[in-house]
Automatic annotation (TrEMBL):
Highest taxon above the source species: Archaea
All residue ranges annotated as the Amidohydrolase-related domain in the record: 58-412
Species for this entry: Halorubrum aquaticum
UniProt keyword Hydrolase, yes or no: yes
Molecular function, one GO term: hydrolase activity, acting on carbon-nitrogen (but not peptide) bonds
Entry keyword set: Hydrolase
Protein name: Cytosine/adenosine deaminase
Length: 483
C-alpha cells in the first residue's frame, strides 16, 4: 500500500542520470521512495493514504543546510547593524556568559524557533555545531526534521575546560547518535585552530578513533592569522594540525577556508575532505581584508563544495536558496562569470551536501530506495510564469515563500504552507518571552526602527576581559588582525 503519492509534478530527481520528469509521480511507502516515474492516469484516482496533486509545481529533494550555528537564534535583528569587530566582541561575550545569564529556557526557545524557520524554508536536514546540542537534538527530533549535530568544542572560547567539553561530547554521542528513528545523528565538532587548545585536539583525536563513523566538523582558515593560531598547537598550518591527529580525510567537513591558498585546496581535495561554504555572513560583515575562498583551485582539484547559512540570525535570513544565489553572485564578482551553473547549485544544496554528511545513500536525491525527504515548490504563479530553464528559476527566482509542502521520512511536516509537526503559536510565544528576557538581562534597547547595544552591559565587560586574555596569549597585532 502506498502511504504517499505525489502526482503530476515536475520532478527534479537530482539522481545519477539527472532525470527531470515533466509530469511525474513519486510514491512513498514506510518512509521510503518506492518509485519515481511519469504520471499515469490511474495515479489521479489513487487510493493511497495521502495524495498530493502537484500540477504546476516542482518536486525536489529536501534542502540541506551544510553548516549552521543555532544557539542564539533569538538575537535575530539585534546584531545586524553592527560592524564586524563589534559583532565579534558581542558574540564572544555571549558565549562566555550565556549559560549563567540566560539558561536552558532561552536556548530551547531558540532551537524551536530555528526548527520553525528551517521547516518553512524547505530545509529538511541541517548540519549544526552548537553549545546546546542536547536541546537541538530534542527539537530537531520532535519536529520530524533531520539533523547532524555536534557539541562545539572550543576551550579558548568558553569557560569549560577541554576535559569537561570532551566528556560532554562523548556523553552526547552515546545518548543522541542515531536516535529519533535515525533522523538525528552526532558529529565531532572542534571549533577550529583559533578556539581549541592542543589538549582539546588530542581529545578530539581520541573521540575520532572511538567513533570512526562520525563526521568531523570544524572551521578552518577563517582568519588571516590561521597559521599563527595553528602554531599554538605546535604545527605549521591548520591542515598540518589536522594531519598530526589523523583528522583529515573523506569524513572531514571544513568550514569557510577564506584564507586558504591553492596548495591548501589541493591537499583538501586529495584528502577527500568537504568544504562548507557560507558566503553571506562574511560578505555582510567583511571580517578581514579577504572575504572569499580559493574556489577556482577547489574546482580544479575536484573538492566537494557545499553551502551553509552559518549564523543566519546575524544577518536575518534563513533562505538557503538565496544563500546559494549569493554564493554564485559573489563568486562571479570575484573570479568571473559562470563559476557555477544553476544545476550545480541545486546539487550543492541536495546530493552534494548529502555526500558531505555521509548521507547520500539515504537522502539528497529522489530515487527508489532512498528515504522520502522532499519539498514541493509552487512555480505556477505570475512571479514565475512563463519560464524555461527550470534550474535557473529554482536558484534565481524562487524564494522560501514558494515552498508549499515539506516531507521528511515520508511524514508530511508542512502542507499547503500549513505546519503539521509544530505548535506554531507556542513556539512563537516562547521565543517572544525569552527574547524580552534577554533584552532585560543585557540592556539592549529595541524598536521598530532598529536596536542599540548597551554601553556598559555585562556582555561588554566580559568581552573586554576576553580581549585582554587574547592579547596576552597571541599579541595585540594578531588580535587586531583577527578582529
Amino acid at each position: 500500500m502506498t502511504d504517499l503519492l505525489i502526482h503530476d509534478g515536475i520532478v527534479v530527481t537530482v539522481d545519477h542520470e539527472n532525470r527531470l520528469l515533466k509530469n511525474g509521480s513519486v510514491r512513498v511507502s514506510d518512509g521510503t521512495i518506492s518509485s519515481v516515474e511519469p504520471t499515469e492516469p490511474a495515479d489521479r484516482r489513487s487510493t493511497a493514504e495521502h495524495v498530493i496533486d502537484a500540477s504546476g509545481k516542482v518536486v525536489i529533494p529536501g534542502l540541506i543546510d551544510a553548516h549552521r550555528h543555532t544557539d542564539f537564534t533569538l538575537v535575530q535583528g539585534l546584531f545586524s547593524e553592527l560592524a564586524g569587530d563589534e559583532l565579534l566582541k558581542e558574540a564572544f561575550a555571549l558565549y562566555h556568559t550565556a549559560e549563567s545569564t540566560l539558561g536552558d529556557d532561552f536556548f530551547d526557545a531558540a532551537w524551536r524557533l530555528a526548527c520553525l524557520r528551517q521547516l518553512t524554508h524547505g530545509v529538511t536536514t541541517v548540519n549544526a555545531m552548537d553549545f546546546t546540542p542536547e536541546l537541538g537534538a530534542e527539537a530537531i527530533g520532535e519536529t520530524g526534521l533531520r539533523g547532524v549535530i555536534g557539541p562545539e568544542l572550543a576551550d579558548f572560547l568558553t569557560p569549560a575546560s577541554a576535559a569537561e567539553q570532551l566528556a560532554d561530547a562523548r556523553r552526547f554521542i552515546e545518548t543522541y547518535h542515531d536516535t529519533f528513528e535515525g533522523r538525528v545523528t552526532a558529529s565531532i565538532a572542534p571549533g577550529g585552530e583559533a578556539g581549541c587548545s592542543r589538549t582539546l585536539w588530542e581529545g578530539v583525536a581520541e573521540l575520532r578513533a572511538d567513533y570512526p563513523d562520525l563526521r568531523l566538523h570544524t572551521h578552518l582558515y577563517d582568519s588571516a592569522v590561521a597559521n599563527t593560531m595553528a602554531a599554538g598547537s605546535g604545527t605549521d598550518d591548520p591542515l598540518d594540525l589536522l594531519d598530526r591527529y589523523d583528522l583529515l580525510d573523506e569524513r572531514t567537513l571544513l568550514t569557510h577556508l577564506l584564507h586558504a591558498g591553492r596548495d591548501d585546496a589541493k591537499r583538501i581535495a586529495d584528502a577527500g575532505a568537504h568544504v562548507l561554504h557560507c558566503p553571506t555572513v562574511y560578505s555582510y560583515f567583511q571580517a578581514g581584508t579577504q572575504t572569499w575562498f580559493p574556489l577556482p583551485a577547489l574546482q580544479e582539484f575536484g573538492a566537494n563544495v557545499v553551502i551553509g547559512l552559518d549564523d543566519p540570525f546575524w544577518f536575518d535570513s534563513w533562505d538557503l536558496i538565496q544563500e546559494s544565489k549569493h554564493a554564485r553572485l559573489l563568486a562571479n564578482f570575484e573570479y568571473g562569470a559562470q563559476q557555477w551553473s544553476s544545476y550545480d547549485l541545486l546539487k550543492m544544496l541536495t546530493i552534494d551536501a548529502a555526500r558531505a554528511l555521509g548521507l547520500d545513500g539515504k537522502i539528497g536525491s529522489l530515487e527508489p530506495g532512498k528515504r522520502a525527504d522532499l519539498v514541493v515548490i509552487d512555480v505556477n504563479t505570475p512571479r514565475h510564469q512563463p519560464y524555461s530553464n527550470l534550474p535557473s528559476v529554482l536558484m534565481n527566482t524562487v524564494t522560501a515563500g514558494d515552498v508549499e509542502t515539506v516531507v521528511v521520512e515520508g511524514d508530511i511536516l508542512m502542507e499547503d504552507q500549513s505546519i503539521e509537526s509544530m505548535d506554531v503559536e507556542s513556539v512563537q510565544a516562547a521565543a517572544i518571552r525569552e527574547r524580552e528576557r534577554f533584552q532585560r538581562r543585557t540592556g539592549w534597547e529595541t524598536s521598530l526602527a532598529g536596536s542599540t547595544p548597551p554601553d556598559r552591559s555585562i556582555l561588554r565587560r566580559v568581552s573586554g576581559r576576553l580581549l585582554l586574555r587574547a592579547i596576552k596569549q597571541y599579541g595585540r597585532g594578531v588580535v587586531n588582525q583577527h578582529l
